[in-house]
Amino acid sequence: MNPMNIESISNSFINLHSYICLEFKHSGKIEEIPYRNELILIDSPIKGEHKDYQKNITKHSTYNLISGILFGLGLVAFIDEMVFHQLLSWHHFYDQSTTKIGLLSDGLFHAFSWFATVASLFMVADLRRRNSWWKKRWIGGVLLGIGLFNLYDGLIQHKVFKLHQIRYGVDLLPYDLVWNITAALITIIGIIIIRKTSHSQSK
Amino acid sequence: MPAHQHLDINSVSFILAIPFFLLIILYGIAVIKSNQSYRQWPWYYTACWISGNVLCLLAVAGPLAEASHQFFSVHMVAHLLLGMIGPLFMVLAKPVTLLLRSLPIKTARKVTTTLKKRPFHLLLNPLFTTVLNIGGLWLLYRTELFTLMHHSMLLYIVIHAHIFLAGYFFTASIIYIDKLHQGYSFQFRAIILILALAGHQILAKSFYGYPPSSVEKMEAEKGSMIMYYGGDVVDLVIIIIFCYQWFKVTKPKRYQPHSV
């Protein structure tokens, strides 16, 4: 569009606006007249945020990522508890070979993931009200969180700390392989999505 | 647990139950006083207060309390009621706000300044209340204290009062329902809340493998799971309230419609 044209339109609009404000002031309906410049500075009804969605998600890209990772950690801990502990009864609440550091690690991770599930969803709500939720990057974070937690669970908690095994009374090797390879694959897919979304950010 | 009891259950229950009855009555009087000079005190606060006190009463007197002397698993249910669920309901009832509203303005001001002084201020520090709460639990179950408790009336009363008070002040120092002071940051309280939950769950799970003194293995296993999953549920409620408060405080401002 012709820049001259825009200027004349906006000028006439400002004039009209000032006139209306003046009228209101005389009639005592409003006390303060907003500054003329404010009209041009404002581009979003939310203070501190852009009107442009693209600019917003760039600004909040780390926030989106962290929220996703936290949700991934929380989600997988919840699935682990529901599916493997309660429904399948493969995992045991406690195993005689559990080391003390295993109990410590389990307690800390459990508490953290419990908090993370709720906190990350409130973060999504916050991002949405700021018009800044970047779904793709967020899902990348979720996958990374799921993968990393399962790798930690499968390699460190099950094997090193001997918290409990995946299943009892069976040959463990195939279970351990499937568990950890799946976790590694999910982690890689998560990293790819995150890298892709970081790339489009610089464009 | 020993079958023969060295303490008189009825008198212990009686002594522990009196304060909760008194608290219900005092709250009722305060509501009437407050309604005389301010807007109607919402009924759901009163409902929260009564439910919280009744839940605590269930834990200290009546059939549940009697069975808790015999079975560790029932003891754990009572522990959840007295130390977590009851206090949570009571915190939600805004007792301090009601107290200040029911007093004359001068006295209310004095109370506020006293509450800001050292010993009281310490009770609003989440780190201190966590040590009081979780530290107290470790002390109770990981030393001989738990066995001694069932033989001494004084010890039994002191420990139960401690479980309730520590639970109340811990909850009040994490979620601010009564707005008394500037408060600690959300980050700090979040870290403390996670550590407190972890401390609780580690202790709970450890009962499965290492029962407290004089507790049978089967009972310890049941109690362990009740404490673990029960603690999870109550803490989930606390976490949701905590996050919701964060969500409200960080709400971004909007430009006034007339200036757009």
UniProtKB/TrEMBL annotation, chain B:
Membrane-spanning segments: 12-32, 44-65, 77-100, 120-141, 153-176, 188-208, 228-247
Main location: membrane
Keywords: Cell membrane, Membrane, Transmembrane, Transmembrane helix
Membrane topology of this protein: Multi-pass membrane protein
Database matches in InterPro entries: Caa3_assmbl_CtaG-rel
Keyword Flavoprotein: no
Subcellular locations according to the entry: Cell membrane
The protein's name in its UniProt record: Cytochrome c oxidase assembly protein
Organism: Cytobacillus stercorigallinarum
